[in-house]
Amino acid sequence: MAKPRTLFSDREREIANAIAGLADGNPFGPERLAYERKVLGRRFTSRSSVWHAEQDLREVDPNLLELAELIEKLVPTLRDRLAAGARATTEELVAYEAAVRHLLFQRHIAVWWQLIERAENGEPTNGKIEAYDRFAKDIRQFLDFPGVRFPVDTRPAHLFAWAFQIRRAFHHTYRKIFGGSEPAAALRAAVWQSIFTHDAGRYRRALYERMDDATTLITGESGTGKELVARAIAMSRYIPFDEKKKCFTADLGETFSAVNLMALSPTLIESELFGHRRGSFTGALETRPGWLETAGHSGCVFLDEIGELDGSIQVKLLRVLQSRSFQRIGETEERMFSGKVIAATNRDLATEIEAGRFRRDLYYRLCSDTITTPTLRDQLSDTPADLRNLLSILAQRMVGSDEAAGLTDECETWINRNLGQDYDWPGNVRELEQCVRNVLIRGDYQPQQHQSATSPLTSVLDDYRNGSLTAEELVERYTAHVYSLTGSYQEAARRLGLDRRTVKAKVLSAQESERSISARKRTS
Hints:
By secondary structure, the protein is an alpha/beta fold. It contains 23 helices and 11 strands.
């Protein structure tokens, strides 16, 4: 048999490079479909670019089936050519190694899925894994050739840990961050980037054990799922695999620690974070470590409501982020923090900084990686059908799968009849959840009515007394006031005895007038 001269044909090289893009790309980004199309050509099936868990999961993605079949045929062919002495450039070896990773990820996916299930059942995941031997054997079969040196890290233990991380990241991002809208898709893509950066190749080569230094700051309104985002990132961190002991070096169930800063006093916050020595303050009956100490090398501390943090503790947290060191309360011994910090806030930190309530230097330590969670109104404005999807998810949690469809129908009918599709959901998903609970228990939901500081009624009374409003302006601004109370064009229309479209037009007109007045005041 003649010795093969090159590793790839022109078409195989194009396919392998596209497979490498899939293996190291963002599965929630738009580039995924472009790579699939390059690999499959005419066999590609057009589908929605938004990949989310509310799709019909009974239908297997035909592109994934086609990809698996193609890669199962291509990679062994390329391996045989390399074994026979085919020449390969550095770029070709990189593409071949990525195709091998893609193949072995699919072949051994059950191993990592079992570990994820164990973690979700509260069972340890750092026990001995006998299946690793089969994985390592496959790695050697496909990547161990005399005289061939791959320009990437092909250690079986590293690739085993990488594959487990990829599987966890996809699970927690795909299954736990809901929504079929473009804002939800962008959020999932941003979470993936927070885990692996925009360059997954560089991440695997050099960053996989250095991401602790990058603090993630999650901003967004209350009820938009900031803790879900934090948990997805924390549960998807790289956990090294010990090849000698055949186990992961950390238990997945112990990698996430959440501290709600708004719910604790400054003393308790300091104790929770840094730990304390016995007798260091009233109530310190025994010495105990804090979350920063127990997090470990693969752990993550989530600081919710970081904007509420007391100034004195801001200084101590800044030191942790700068030097990775801290002291327990009542001790002088230096201890090291080896985990990652994720912080979240619904406050505008720029405003807090200008008001002197938040340290500017701490902010710049927090914002190396930022994510903003979209509001429910943004998601529903993009994809109104998401309302039913979210109602179904909430209903299943509350009443189980057998009763979920009935409760979903009841809630959807009630919302459409009483709030309408234009309701703003100021409390976001948290408010939607309470709406479902209220309809479940009482068959009714009453949105909280409040007059905000920027309510259109704030100045309308003075203008009314001064007689400076036209009749149309008075109607517009009162309509806008009623809408601000209800958050729903449909409910405002019911109260005012007007058509919903008329209400919306008058509200928009009133808002435009308010903006014009504010602009004139700023320039005067």
